[in-house]
Recover the amino acids of this structure.
């Protein structure tokens, strides 16, 4: 339907432009399924504590602001945190990264759906999925100390 109202025309133009930047629903759902599979596998891999190996999104995917890559051939970047439930004082950052990398490598070796490939970055591990328009960067992290509330507010 054609309209001569300039405000409606602008709204339609902006809606169409914004849609070009949105992550397609099927891509988003596959990315979420992939990181949930990783998180579930790592939680079993590291033991009885469901908090250990917790994988959760951070950055634009968590905020719902992830947009299409600007350059042709680039991938959606899914940023994740893998939280280990170990005392910060008991290990180094290098050891933590190696520990998480070992868990991710074991996940890859288990033959998960999507046939991911692991690579190492300076501070994180990356899982690439052949044929998928996204990759997942997995940042190792320690659990922050839990503070107890005392008194009442």
């Amino acid at each position: 339907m054609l309209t001569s109202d300039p405000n409606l025309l602008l709204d339609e133009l902006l809606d169409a432009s914004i849609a070009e930047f949105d992550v397609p629903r099927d891509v988003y759902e596959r990315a979420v399924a992939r990181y949930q599979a990783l998180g579930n596998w790592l939680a079993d891999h590291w033991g009885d504590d469901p908090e250990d190996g917790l994988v959760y999104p951070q950055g634009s995917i968590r905020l719902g602001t992830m947009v299409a890559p600007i350059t042709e051939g680039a991938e959606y970047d899914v940023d994740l945190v893998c939280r280990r439930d170990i005392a910060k004082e008991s290990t180094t950052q290098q050891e933590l990264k190696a520990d998480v990398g070992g868990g991710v490598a074991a996940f890859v070796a288990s033959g998960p759906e999507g046939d991911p490939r692991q690579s190492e970055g300076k501070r994180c591990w990356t899982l690439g999925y052949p044929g998928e328009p996204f990759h997942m960067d997995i940042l190792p992290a320690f659990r922050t100390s839990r503070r107890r509330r005392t008194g009442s507010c």
Notes: The radius of gyration is 20 Å. The first strand starts at residue 54 and ends at 57. Strands lie at 54-57, 76-84, 117-120, 125-128, 134-142.
